[in-house]
Each structure stands twice: as C-alpha cells, then as structure tokens.
Specification:
The protein has five helices and 14 strands. It is an alpha/beta fold. The strands form three sheets. Strands 10-11-9-12-13-14 form a six-stranded mixed beta sheet, sandwiched between helices. A five-stranded mixed beta sheet has the order 3-1-8-5-6, with no helix packed on it. Strands 4-2-7 form a three-stranded mixed beta sheet, with no helix packed on it. It is an enzyme of class 3 (hydrolase).
Length: 333
C-alpha cells in the first residue's frame, strides 16, 4: 500500500432541523394552543486517531465528509431527532490544520484521541416557545442553524523511537533491514527510498522500539530541495536520531555537516536531540582511515559507532547502544 502523509479534505457538520408551527386540534378543543416541536441538532464531524491506520491513503479516494442534519420538529410537541455524527479515522500522529490559515487545530498522538473538528448546528425552536399572554397562537418558529464547515489539511508525523537520517545512499535502508524485520527497497543509487520506512527492533530484555528510515534529505532539504521537505516532519517525534554517514566517501565530515545543518534549520530544537553517529560501510576502508574518522567525529559527537550494514560488523553494538540510550531516557537520566 502506498504511503501518503499529506491530504486536504472538506468537512461539513449537520445543519439543525427547523422548528415547527403547529396547534392542538382536538374534537372539543378546536382552537388549542401551540404544540410545535423543536428541530433536532445537527451531527458533528469527529476526527479519531486509530493505531490500525499507518497512512493517509484513504483520503485519496474520499475527501468530503458530512454529518447528518437534524430532523425538523413536528406537531404534538414532537422534537426532531438529532443528526448522526460523522467520524473520520486517521493514523496516530496526525496533525489537523485549517487549510486557509494554517492554524494547528489538533495533534492526535495517542490511539483513541478524538477531536470535534466541526460542530453541528442547533435545532430551531417550535412555536410553543413564543406563546405569551398577548399572543396565545404564535405562528412563529425559527430555522435550525447551519453546521460548521471547513477545508482542512492533515499531516502525518510518524511516531518512532529512532529516526535514521543521512544523505541518500548512506546505507540507511540496509541498516534498517539488519536492525529489524523490515524489508525496504535497497539499491546503490540515490533516492532508493521514496517514502519513510518503519521497522521494529526486538531486544531480549527491552520492549520493542520503532525505527523510521527518513528519506530524501539533501542539502537544501529544509527549503524543499530533493524529497526532504516532505519528510522532515517525521523527524520531529523521534526520541533518538541515528545519523548515518558513508565512511567510504571522501567528504565524510562535510556530508555529516550537511544533514546536521538541515535538521537545525528545519527546527532548532533538533540540535538538542540525542544523536548516535554511525560510520557505515567500514568494510570499504582500511583500519588507518577508520581511526582517522573516529578521531575526527569523537571531538563533537558523544556516541560514535563504526558499523557495516553489509557484513554485520558493529550491528550488535549499535542495537545495544540504542536500547541503552532509550532505557536511560525512560529512567530520566
């Protein structure tokens, strides 16, 4: 199934039913008082987060959501039935925004979170409400109010414990496949991964953690260059960033700085995110070059780990470091 993380859609809450003008008509009371019922309230449009969904693909096939209107009031003081609400299920991690103003209306981060995005209109009043000492037979009733309606934007931000970031072809997809049971597309050319990939890291004594491979990050990603602008939002919710660099490239340090700068320019708080630097593809360099790189990066990175996604060297240590780091975060260390 295709991964879709952005959609625009329209919601319309139900209109309220109209109030009724009616009078009692009985055999021995030919001119009875008013007995018009009120109109029913319109249904709401509700957004609900569901862990059963992982993409916004359904919005490609349906982009208009309308709740039921309230029924009109009737005679004999019969009030109209309220309209049924319309519930729209979205993935956990969805952010709802006003399409016109860009205002963030809701951020649904937990399974079962709900948000009433459009409220139904109130029902109109029947003529019983307008009877008075001077007007015993009011022929007045009010119309129901219109339900709210909006064009909205929904953005999905993946909720993952670990985010894999790095330039295209740094080996992130290979690492994801070795760290988890995920099976992403892997190839020796840029932009093999065209959408975020998720995997689950299983560890003996630790609860499973979710790893996300964030694609499309290149220089200028925060301004929309490459694919990065579409996917940078998925970095926001990760607890740990695993920055993967290709140790076999000549400009290793510069490549690291490119991604670090893009993350900082996208959101400053990402600079304070716990980060593990992975020197990948060490099977393609000699020991002296590896020592040189380790010395360079150890000056400004607390956690530097040489690995080879191809041969598996260092992967056990990387798994252990990820789990230990998450465990310390949970303990508040």
């Amino acid at each position: 199934m295709a991964f879709v993380d952005y959609a625009k859609f329209y919601v319309k809450a139900g209109d309220g039913g109209n109030g009724c003008v009616s009078f009692r008509r009985e055999k021995y009371v030919p001119k009875g008082g008013p007995n018009g019922g009120d109109g029913g309230r319109g249904g709401d449009v509700i957004i609900r987060a569901s862990s059963a969904l992982t993409s916004l693909i359904d919005f490609k096939y349906r982009s208009h959501f309308k709740a039921e209107r309230g029924e009109h009031g009737k005679g004999k003081d019969m009030h109209g039935r309220g309209g049924k609400s319309c519930t729209v299920d979205v993935p956990v991690g969805s952010v709802i925004k006003d399409a016109e103003t860009g205002e963030c209306l809701a951020d649904l981060t937990m399974d079962g979170d709900v948000f009433i995005v459009a409220k139904g209109g109130d029902g109109g009043l029947g003529n019983t409400h307008f009877a008075s000492g001077t007007n015993r037979t009011p022929r007045i009733a009010t119309k129901g109010k219109g339900g709210e309606e909006f064009w909205l934007v929904i953005e999905l931000k993946l909720i993952a414990d670990v985010g894999l970031v790095g330039l295209p072809n740094a080996g992130k997809s290979t690492l994801l496949s070795r760290l988890s049971a995920a099976n992403p597309k892997i190839g020796a050319y840029p932009f093999t991964t065209l959408e975020p990939q998720l995997g689950v890291l299983q560890y003996s004594y630790f609860e499973p953690c979710i790893i996300a491979d964030i694609p499309g990050l290149v220089e200028g990603a925060h301004q929309g260059v490459g694919l990065g602008h579409n996917f940078l939002r998925h970095v926001e919710r990760t607890s740990i960033l695993v920055h993967v660099v290709d140790a076999a490239e000549e400009e290793v340090e510069n490549n690291y700085r490119i991604i670090s700068d893009e993350l900082l320019r996208y959101k400053e708080e990402l600079a304070g995110r716990i980060q593990i630097l992975v020197l990948n593809k060490i099977d393609l360099i000699d020991e002296n070059r590896l020592k040189e790189l380790y010395t360079v990066f150890a000056k400004f990175c607390d956690k530097v780990l040489p690995v080879s996604g191809q041969t598996g060297d260092g992967l056990s240590e990387l798994k252990q470091l990820i789990v230990d780091t998450l465990e310390k975060m949970q303990d508040g260390q």
